[in-house]
Amino acid sequence: MLFGSRSEKSKYNVPEGQGSLFEEEENPFPLSEQTEEQSQQVVSYTVVRKASKRKRNDHFQEGVETEVIHHHPDQLTCACCDLKLTEIGGTIVREEAEFVSAQLKRIQHMEHAYECLHCKADLSTPTKIVRGKAPQPVIQRSLAGPSVLAKVLSDKFTLYLPLYRQVKEWARYGLQTNDKNLSNWVINASNQWLTPLYRRMIELALNRTILHVDETTSQVIHRSDGKPASSKAYNWVYKTVPCQGPPLVIFKHSLSRAKEVLKNFLSGFKGTVICDGYSAYGDIEDISFANCWAHVRRYWLKADSKNGQMGVDYCNRLYQLERKFRTMRPSKRRRMRKKYSKPILDDFFKWIENGHFYGKNAIATAAEYTLKRKEALQRFLHDGRIEIDNNPAENAIRPNVIGRKNWLFSVSEAGAQANAICLSLSETAKLHGIDFYAYLKKIFTDLPTMSIQQQSERLDSFLPWSPEIQESCKLR
Length: 476
Fold this sequence. Notes:
By secondary structure, this protein is of the alpha/beta class. It is built from 15 helices and nine strands. Helix 3 runs antiparallel to helix 14 (436-446) and helix 7 (293-302) packs antiparallel against helix 10 (362-372). The protein is extended and about 95 Å long.
């Protein structure tokens, strides 16, 4: 009663002949009343309790180095007879985490020269001098080594730590610098070593036939178009679908949200773009557009009325089916959509057309938005690879939004584009389970020793899904 389970379902092993107070039977007292002598018998109970399976909310990952600190008594001789005590066992009483802070090293590359003294003595023989060759630096005339650059970029684009905050941390480690230096490091490293990988990713993405596209605002102080710094700039995001190969996320900086920006990037692309209802998405040669049902649902949700709820219910029914179809192959998902989703769509559009929603209220706006994009909203019925909404792109663009709240703006367009390049590699690496710091360190260590112009085919071995990167940079 005090320490057992509070459930009304008894967990006691009840002796034969004893009834339960909680079992409902036609005759609750099937046995005759016990005599006084029998009722005084001692009955023992066995309480069955389940072992607690509750997990700690903090624990060590596999592979963490373990150090055992042994604590022995101060006195190892018996207080009675002064003989030596014998150890009979040990117990781990607790575990705790210890942080070993990072350490900054000063690395000096010294090239040594050698000559042959025997040949030097012979005046008829030219003197031969050989010299050791230090590896090429990541950035010329800079203190930033591969590991320092990797940490600066990793902290900014995975922890969203702006550069001016990193300056104080580097000073604590022993490196005096400023945010202008760090900004130049990011731009130079991106231009020299990350841009070739970025361009290769764009090339691979444009060879696919389905892309998610979205855009969000940013701010650039020194603009080339003459507009004030308060004007909006934009970051576009393009994401591929997993069923067409290794997933890719590509960010592209632009000063405007014009349709020409989209056309220039998608030059040569042929296929379907999944997007929201922005007017720039449409009327591009060789490209069809599939609109997002999540945006449709939001419009009907804003119409807080009975008709608005009916519109939301139609959308919910489509999403319930999509959850069932999610694990199916694209061909089967297309067939199931034709069979089950299409009738719901037909009823939905028919209900809107017969509803006669007029005016400038929320319900009329939702109806107009839906009917205007009727064809694009039905595109997902004809291709099982197309998602019902553009949520993958909206999720992909979220790190840019979080970062924007921390580093606020870019001083130059070069910095804004460097941010886009780094975010592209960071988010793609995240999709493939890659440690971004280890990935950047390998890039900045290996690529300067290679001639990329002559060995461009080797770039594929530095993409996040390549076996070499998966083996050396995989997250634990």
